[in-house]
Amino acid sequence: MKKLLITAVLVFAAVNFTSCRAAQKEKPQIYASFFVMYDFALQIAGANADVYCIVPSGAGAHNFEPTPQDMAAVSEADIFFYSDSVMEPWAGNVADAAQNTPAVSLSEGLYEENADPHVWLNPNYALKMMEVILVKLISADPDNTDSYIENYNIASEKIDALNQSYIDAQLSGKTILCYHAAYTHLCDEYGMTQKSVEETGNSAEVSASKIAETIEFINENEIKYIFAAPYGYAGAVDVITRETAAKRLELNPCEILDEKSRADGADYFSIMYANLENLKTGAQYTASGA
Amino acid sequence: MEREIIKVTNVSFGYDGNDVLKDVSFCAQRGDFLCITGINGAGKTTLLKLLLKTLKPSSGTISIDYTGNKISYVPQKAASFNPAFPATAAEITALGLYPEKNKAKIAGEVKAALKKVNLQGCENKLIGKLSGGQQQRVFIAKALISSPDILLLDEPTTGIDRDSLGDICCLLGDINKNYNITVLMVTHDIASIINHANKVLYFGGDKVSLLSSAQYRNNIFHAGMAADFTAHGDGG
Amino acid sequence: MRIFLYPFMQRAIIAALLISAALPLVGNIVVLRRLSPVGDALSHGSLFGVALGLCFGVNPVLGAVLATLFSAFLLEFIRGAFPKYSEISTSIIMSLGVGLAAVLSGFVKSRADFDAVLFGSVVAVSDIELVFIFLVSVSIALYIFFNLNELLYMAFDEESAAVSGVNCKRVNFIFTFLLALAVSISAKTVGALLISTLMVIPPACAMQLSKSFKGNIILSVAFGMFFALTGLLVSALFDLKPGGVISVTGVLTLIVIILIRRGRKI
Description:
The complex is a heterotrimer. Chain A is built from eleven helices and eight strands. Chain A is of the alpha/beta class. A four-stranded parallel beta sheet of chain A has the order 2-1-3-4, with helices on one face. Chain A has a two-stranded parallel ribbon with strand order 5-6. In chain A, strands 7-8 form a two-stranded parallel sheet. Chain A is globular and about 80 Å long. Chain B has eight helices and nine strands. Chain B is an alpha/beta fold. In chain B, strands 5-6-7-3-8-9 form a six-stranded mixed beta sheet, sandwiched between helices. The two termini of chain B are 32 Å apart. The radius of gyration of chain C is 18 Å and the shape is globular. By secondary structure, chain C is mostly helical. Chain C contains twelve helices and no strands. Chains in contact: A-C, B-C. Chains A and C meet through helix 8 and helix 9 of A and helix 1, helix 2 and helix 5 of C.
């Protein structure tokens, strides 16, 4: 028994020691708060850095509670990217705990206070966020500057293509009805109007009167589609689609990605193209002053 | 000699090696009124449970002449009995007829049982609104409603005020005489009931003795027993 | 008031009425047999099931049923380990339920879902859920109706009941099962935290006024339904959370009843 113990200790020490040595040649460790931030960082970093996403697959970005492991991991990291304190109120705690790691707010300055924080849904803002990532990556890891710039250029081209597709879709002047007001920046960029069921940025409990109002509105204006993110809202959207002729169309605000989609290779671009298709189908009515 | 309705022979009972009852023997005839008394913790309630068959003796035999004989039980009024319990005297008395379902029959029997305990007219009173003595009489009515031949009571006079005490004791005496029901009653307050009882089962420190009530009354003043009494602080 | 013309509101009313009948029915027995901590424990246990449902796409009511039944068995299991201190088991189950729900809260996708777990979402009852609620409520009503004597006897004096031939073990088992079901159907609708309200307060009100055991049961159901209807009405009119309004209605009613009775005695 004693022999076993000594062997175990020796093996343990050896493994640690070797991994310690390997660490000296480690790639930059980049932590991003939730899915789309992680995706942007990955677009720019490519294979040159290890990028991690704090919020696990399938979890909500806003109500997330970071674990002590998360805090510890970020304090060992080179950079921590997040959107801002409106979208991730918990990011401040992580930033505080990881004092020596620069915490970079990617959404800062892109929109006004108290407005919709989902800025990345505007592809041009997304590019701006990736630009910030680029700058930070270069300063943290100057050796790979060329590689990062190249990745950025690729991403930039993709954004241009995406942007052009949206423009070509001629969505300007159309109104979309959505459950949660998360698509302001997307709508603003392409001339659409967003009418939402839940006004507040952080949707609270499903309210009977709001649902009733929405049903009225849909029936009066003969709206055929209601847009919603691909998750629950405690069944409120189901209630609405059950009692009206409106159908539900998915408009993914890129906050959450489940394991399966991630495994299938979904990223910001694929999601935004899917969103575009649904917008083409659904954003077909022009309501007057709705 | 009249047939014994209860015969307990060399019964012992214990938990985890502790003997609560050791080698107890006694018998009762039909129509007896047997007071069970003695020092605390000597196993009196346990004896009742053995008679009811909710416990099994570790050794020895209990034979109750069950042919046509029913046995009813009035448990010790739990300290946790909540007077706010929402049930009428009738509803509680009716429980004694379980599992009878015929509503008309139940109503009739309940009326009769409550009359036997001098609570006629109290059918629809909430049990919580009755006095301690009246509540106890309801419980006795519940035990009587099934027309038992044997009635077991565990400390029916505890917590009853002195005035009602006498009533209950007289009631039990009447039940015993008028309906020829064999009564076995565990009590600490033997003074009130001794006039109605004809036998006493006394749980001493080391043995259980069956005496006639006359013997018991005389023996109280007998040195040995008095010593038993005072040594264990039993005011009986 | 037009809001009540909408099918979803009508569904909500039916669900609320059924639940507010089922909960007091089991609640009576829970109160009389001093099982309120058990009811509370199961409610907290159901939290986990509802959270599981809302976070991972499992039907929340089904999740609640499984979690509650699991909690019920775990409760008995732990209770066996602490024969003299059975209250420990209820606290353990409560901690477990809340703890697991807290872990799951990290996976909640929207604030609405999280609130729904705690406070219910009576306006979002699906067809399947409504059918299930109906079946459970009817089962509970039938069982209580046909076993009134047994339940009364066991509530009054379990020992004597056993001696008189009541199969206490079986009644306890079935009752716990029905209690778990009642908690489950309520968890997603009025919210796990508010289940105890509808389970305990209507019987409490009834006990202040009832004149018999049967009367107590009927009165408690009446109170339950009254709280639910009032709660829904007020919450719809003033755009407040239904679960909360139902609770407050219940407590206020109880206080008023107690005060009136005190007043009469003077």
